[in-house]
Amino acid sequence: MKAVVLVAFGCPDCLENIGPFMERIMGRTPPPALIAAVRSRYEKIGGKSPLTEITSQQARALKTLLGSEFLVDFAYQYWRPEIPEVVFNLVQKGAKTIYFLPMSAFNSQVSTGAYQKTIKNLEEKFPEIKFYFKGGLAEEPYFIEAHRQLLTTALQPFSPKNTGIIFTAHNLPKKAIEQGDPYFAEFLKTVEAIARTFPFPWRYAFQSKGKSGEEWLKPEVDDVIISWQNQGVENIIINPIGFVADHIETLYDLDIELKEKFSTVNIVRLPALNDHPLLIKALHQLVQKMEG
Q1: What is the pTM of this model?
Q2: Rounded distance, CA 123 to CA 118, Å?
């Protein structure tokens, strides 16, 4: 029996678990004021992230493509269901080969690197099981085509004369890229593959940076919007290609915080791919590549 596990960062499953979730990510107890600030954000998007529901939908859709030969599940690095727990359950069900697919658009030590470390530890605990890991959707044709389709629909009412596209991804500390992290290169390559299809001006930008005092990647999405405002751009289409599922970074950081800050600009935020059929096909292709 073969199995596929979709691996994601995770999210708190209720308001009361925001503190414990943050503690797992940070490796220490977060200050009460920070927990309260994050809790307020979750309250404004309905009390919890839809990430678990969306990832579950992605897993079910992939199962439909793969058929009865595969078990398909999902797991989180920093919350429940945890990767070791899901792997144990799959082994109990008879899985002899497990393929891991990170639900991250681009490879990074922060995300895919952390997942691989967890999986490496599991290889030592289950030496009889074959583990395979395939990260990165950046060069998958179906992934790129899915974003082209979303943009084609979104851009129909607009003119290149007064409309621009911003492609966003989660910010990272600048030192990570300087140390060889492939995240930025994969992000830029994907942006260029999508953007060249359209006669609209475009920029890439980073969003949702952390609160540490270190230097983060630029430009930030705010910087690009301010620049375009000064140039007379009236409509801004935001395509958050760095996120394969809608959650707090899109639903709050873009839909609420950003739109409130730039209320005089017409900001149209595209949905993440979520369970888009072409994303599921891209995941299916990654499994086929691992199978050889």
Answers
A1: 0.96
A2: 9
Query: Is 226 in the same domain as 131?
Result: no
Give residue-wise pLDDT tens across range 56-93.
999 999 999 999 999 999 999 999 999 999 999 999 99
| Four-residue CA torsion sign, 155, 161, 164, 165 | positive
| Same domain, residue pair 143 and 130 | no
Into how many domains does the chain fold?
2
Annotated ligand binding at 170? The verdict is yes
| 217 shares a domain with 175 | yes
**Is 249 marked as a binding-site residue?**
yes
Question: Does 24 count as an annotated binding residue?
Answer: no
Q: Report how far Cα 209 is from the mean position of its chain's Cα atoms.
A: 14
8-state DSSP, 213: S
User: In this structure, are residues 50 and 247 in contact, taking their beta carbons and an 8 Å threshold?
Assistant: yes
Q: Which residues lie closer than 8 Å to 151 by C-beta, 6 or more apart?
A: 165, 194, 197, 198, 237, 239, 270
- The Cα–Cα gap between 51 and 12 comes to 9
- CATH code (residue 68): 3.40.50.1400
Is residue 49 part of an annotated ligand binding site? yes
Bridge partner list, 133: 100
- How do residues 100-150 score in pLDDT, each as one tens digit? 999 999 999 999 999 999 999 999 999 999 999 998 898 899 999 999 999
Range of the domain at 104: 2-137+276-291
